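Let us practice reading a record.
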Amino acid sequence: MSDKFSRMADVKTFELPFSVPAMETSLYTLKKVLPDPGTEWFRATVRKALGAATNRNPDVVTAR
């Protein structure tokens, strides 16, 4: 993900000198706002940006 930010602006990235555990992120949406193309686009964009696995619950993303 840092590669995307470094391309967008003059940002330098560095490797961390220690390991970072995976982090689980959940996306919640109120049913009353669905179906909404904007909300679905946003959710898909977040899943794609965090590298969501397709064989899991689409609302839970594990980012490394």
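A brief commentary: The mean pLDDT is 76.
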